[in-house]
Amino acid sequence: MSDIPWQKSSYSTQGDNDCIELGRYSGALLLRESDHPDVVSATGPLRVQALLLAVKHGTFGRLD
Q1: Who's near 33: CB < 8 A, 6+ residues apart?
Q2: Can you give the pTM of this predicted structure?
Q3: Number of CB atoms found within 10 A of residue 32's CB
Q4: Could you tell me which of 15, 16, 17, 33 has the fewest CB atoms within 10 Å of its CB?
C-alpha cells in the first residue's frame, strides 16, 4: 500500500504528525493517522461523510 497517494488536511502543517490522512484503494476509502502510517482502516464514502459531518457539528465535543 505504499503506492497509495495519501491526502492530508490543508489545516495540517508540514511537520504536524497529529492528523488523519485519506487514501483510496480498489474503491474503498482508507484512513490512517500520520504518526501511525502502518495502521490503516478501510471504509466507504458514506461513513466518511457521516464522520466529517459529525466532527463539523461538534458531535464529539472539544478535546482540549
Answers
A1: 18, 19, 20, 21, 39
A2: 0.68
A3: 19
A4: 15
Q: Rounded distance, CA 62 to CA 30, Å?
A: 25
Taking every pair of C-alpha atoms in the chain, what is the biggest distance, in angstroms? Answer: 36
What is the structure's pLDDT at 60? 81
Pairing of strands 20-25, 36-43: unpaired
Other beta carbons less than 10 A from residue 60's beta carbon = 9
String of DSSP letters for 1-64: -TTS--EE-TTS-TT----EEEEEETTEEEEEETTEEEEEEEE-HHHHHHHHHHHHTTTT----
